[in-house]
Amino acid sequence: MKKNILLISILVSGFMVLPFMAQAQQADDLEVVNLEGMYQNSNVTKPVPVQSEALIEKTVEQVEPADEVVPPVKKEDVSVNELKDLSRLSPFREVSVIQKKYLPKTERFQFFGALATTTNTPWFLNYGAKLGLAYHFTESFGLELSGLFLSSSEREVAKEIRDNNGLRPEQFIYTKGYYGLDLMWAPIYGKLSNMDGGIIPFDMYFSIGGGSSNTNSAEGNVPTVHIGTGQIFAITKSIAFRWDYSLNIFQATPVSVGGTGVPAKGSYNDLILTAGVSFFFPEASLR
């Protein structure tokens, strides 16, 4: 009886151990197959490291905010009419660009007063003043009515030729004055930096027109063509320093002196330099 019980126990134990032995054998066979595959395949895929759940959750939390769509912000309509209105604009959402000039000229008058001199008269010293009144239709175009008044005095060389050679300098043509109307065109606008770091806005303009020159010729007043250029440097919104350099071209006949015959009519020109101050009015409404 004891032998039978012992035999039955051995048989039961054997049946229980067999499945574990089969599983172990299958694992060994699988490992052998994997080793054979590693030697047969040259391109072996590297194992992907498995991240922990905590690290995955942390990574997801970092990515999620970037994927969120920010709803558009509704802008408020803010009209900018004065400089103080700029403080009402929302930062990084609305931009106001200031393009107006420091000294605007559109629909404004300009009164110009300056000292003047001719620079190409060898026999006479001509000094005087120039007055002008301009109206600017736009920042670039305007009309100017101007008058030039000059006084003349003989240079030393004119006295020498009278005393030494018997010539009369009054036979040479010189200008006593000019008045005319010009079209002004200012295509160039810029800014200069002075020594202390300040900024000086300026315009460069060109003018062309015509008028009449008062001369010492036989005709007296003669038609004249005027061409000029200059610059306007803003001091305030209504005051500016201005200089210009102009060319007056005309034809005139010298006066006959001492029975020397009738002089021939010829072409003459004056190079006139002026520098003075301009006043703009009415007050600018743009700033």
Give the arrangement of secondary structure elements.
Blueprint: H1 2-40, H2 53-67, E1 108-118, E2 124-136, E3 141-154, H3 156-165, E4 175-193, E5 199-215, E6 221-234, E7 239-252, E8 266-281
Antiparallel strand pairs: 1-2, 1-8, 2-3, 3-4, 4-5, 5-6, 6-7, 7-8
Summarize the structure.
It contains three helices and eight strands; from the N terminus they run ααβββαβββββ. With 287 residues, the chain is α+β, with helices and mostly antiparallel strands. The radius of gyration is 49 Å and the shape is elongated.
Question: Can you put this structure into words, describing what you see?
Answer:
With 287 residues, the chain is of the alpha+beta class. It has a domain at 108-281: Porin (Beta Barrel), CATH 2.40.160.20. It has helices spanning 2-40, 53-67, 156-165; strands at residues 108-118, 124-136, 141-154, 175-193, 199-215, 221-234, 239-252, 266-281. The protein has an 8-stranded antiparallel β-barrel with strand order 1-2-3-4-5-6-7-8. The termini are far apart. The mean pLDDT is 78.
Shape: elongated
What is the CATH architecture term of one domain? Beta Barrel
Helix-strand category: alpha+beta
- Total DSSP helices: 3
End-to-end Cα distance, whole Å, is: 124 Å
- What is the name of the CATH class of one domain? Mainly Beta
Task: Give the strand line-up of the largest sheet.
Answer: 1-2-3-4-5-6-7-8
Mind summarizing the main beta sheet? 8 strands, antiparallel, barrel
What is the total tally of β strands? 8
Q: Radius of gyration from the CA trace?
A: 49 Å
Strand content: 35-45%
